[in-house]
Structure formats: C-alpha cells, structure tokens
C-alpha cells in the first residue's frame, strides 16, 4: 500500500467514475483500476462494486476511504510543518472562495500577493460556503476567504475587511438620484435574492426581515451578475456587496444607494483549521489583503 493508491481511492469516491478519477489523478484508467484491485487484494476486502454504469462503494470501502482522507490530510500536514520551518511563504497554497467574493476580490489581491510572495504557488477554488467548510475540515483546502458566520467557531479566523451592502435600483427608479436611504424606508418592499445555499442570501434576509422587507419569490438568482441584470431590466431591487458594485454607478442601468440606520454589512475573513501549522503564512496574507481592501473600501 502506498499514498498514491489512497489518492486513487479518494478520487474514485469523489468522482464515482473510473475515467474521471483517472483524469483527476493524471494516470490512465487501467492504471487506476489495476492499483485499486491490488489494494483490495492487500486489504482482503471488496471496496467497491463495479458495474457498467456506475461505481458503488461497499460499507468497507466507505470506511476505508474516510480513513484514507485522514491519512492524506495528515501527510500533507507533515509537509506543511517542514515548510513552515524552512520557507513559510513558499510552496502550494490551496484557497477556497465563495462566488459572491471571488470574482470581485481576486483582481485586487492576486497581483499584490504575487508581488509580496513570489515563491507561493496559489491554487483557487470557488464553491458555496458549506462545500468549502467541509473541504477545509478534510484538509483538501488550506484556507478560505468568505463571509464570516456564527457557525464557524471550530476554525481559526482572521478578519480581512468589512463590506457594506448597497441598494441596487433601476436607473429610472425614484430613488436612483439619492445618495443614501434609511433601511426602514424599504419596509414593505420585496427584494430580489440569491438562491438557497449562498451565505449572502442569509445575511441579506436577516437585515430585511428585521426591517419588515420581504423577498420577491418570483425569481431567485444563481449569481450577483444575474441580480444586477434583473435590476437593470427594471425587474426589482436588491442588495449588492460594495466590492461587487465597482466604481461605475449608473453606467450599466443600475444605481447604487447607501443604506443607513443600520448599515447592512458583512465581515470577510480568512478561515483556516484552528491548529494549522501554516498560520504564519495566513497572518502575512491577511495583513496584505486587509491593507489593500481597507484602503479601497474606505
């Protein structure tokens, strides 16, 4: 048994397809299949049922795959420990980001991170919060950049910046010429929202419900850009995070109005496993990102 065999097993558990698992591991399908058969022979148990259409893992296969994930995560931790003592700002770093942060934050921070940490090889992954949290806990990702929520106490968190939410209205709307609006003035309105699974939806809904603002249930968007285009088409109002607004208020048929009393906002943080040995690396990254974004959003 070797670590590569465990990587094959985990890849197959994730893909449930031999060809896709082989492509993920950069080997041929016969190689992956043959090594897994050898692993079964060595362990003396059947790990999976092979059919022409799909791969079904046996109870033994599920249990051994779970342990394989832990072994691979521990192995990665050993490498990280060694790197921490030699070159903490070098090597691979796998970062997860949520869709309502990634597209708007990355253009600002990637050039700076490359400049400050040229020996750091960054890999980026985008997914919704709950998926990313599991990947972080399983050791598949080193850290996350996302909106901080109350259920993240099991992880270490480094606050990066505070981001306000602005009211997006169509260019012809009666509020389009205003610079700010009190949240209670929106009472009785129904706002367009993201679909379930996005943490920004939950945060925005929290502010809205407290102020007596409802949700437009006729449509739920899959992205902030869809929300923006719906507003531009005159189909409703919504709340968008400040970084997603950009600097061209009104140019795309959407006007953005500051909301006050209270100001809806979210805290974007860098999340990591509580006892990660790469904490020095995260501290330096957080310092650079926080400096950049605090200046930009002030």
From TrEMBL:
GO terms for molecular function: DNA binding; DNA-binding transcription factor activity. Pfam families: HTH_1 (PF00126), LysR_substrate (PF03466). The gene is oxyR. Residues 1-58 form the HTH lysR-type domain. Belongs to the LysR transcriptional regulatory family. The keyword Transcription regulation applies. It comes from the Bacteria. GO terms for cellular component: protein-DNA complex. It comes from Oceanimonas pelagia. Keywords: Activator, DNA-binding, Transcription, Transcription regulation. This is DNA-binding transcriptional regulator OxyR.
